[in-house]
Design a protein that fits this description.
This protein is α+β, with helices and mostly antiparallel strands. The protein is built from three helices and five strands; from the N terminus they run H-E-E-E-H-H-E-E. The protein has a single domain, classed as HIT family, subunit A. The termini are far apart. Bound molecules: guanosine-5'-monophosphate (5GP) and zinc ion. The site of guanosine-5'-monophosphate has 12 residues, from strand 2.
Length: 110
């Protein structure tokens, strides 16, 4: 684990954070600067820098984010209204925290 990785520190509870969901593999918490009424970050506990760094062994880890997203969307009442799922990849793609995570963004009035 890179010691300077904020999300590793959050995962390891070295930084105070409220988890909306936690299991052995993932944590989910609210984005500190929400871009929408619902803005969750779905974070594998295992440190992977970005989508660029995926290895074949990581497939199930990343694949598991999608059913978790659907579950979190339902729990936060945006499954029917709809939501976006987003991976920012590297600086040009808007990534600021270099620990792979999936944004779940929704809850706009439409
Ligand atoms: P990225 O731009 O890397 O895809 O997304 C990182 C996200 O993490 C940003 O939307 C940012 O607002 C959020 N963030 C940065 N620092 C913290 C923090 O300390 N706590 C939480 N909950 N979110 C954070
Ligand atoms: Zn990390």
């Amino acid at each position: 684990m890179p010691e300077d990785c904020l999300f590793c520190r959050i995962v390891n509870k070295e930084v105070e954070s409220h988890f909306l969901y936690e299991d052995d593999t993932y944590v989910v918490f609210k984005d500190i600067k929400p871009a929408a009424p619902v803005h969750l970050l779905l974070v594998p506990k295992f440190h992977i820098r970005s989508i660029n760094d995926l290895l074949p062994d990581h497939e199930s880890l990343v694949g598991g984010l999608f059913p978790l997203a659907a579950k979190m969307a339902q729990e936060h009442g945006v499954d029917k209204s709809g939501y976006k799922l987003l991976f920012n990849v590297e600086r040009g793609g808007g990534q600021m925290i270099f620990h792979l995570h999936l944004h779940l963004i929704g809850g706009w009035q439409r």
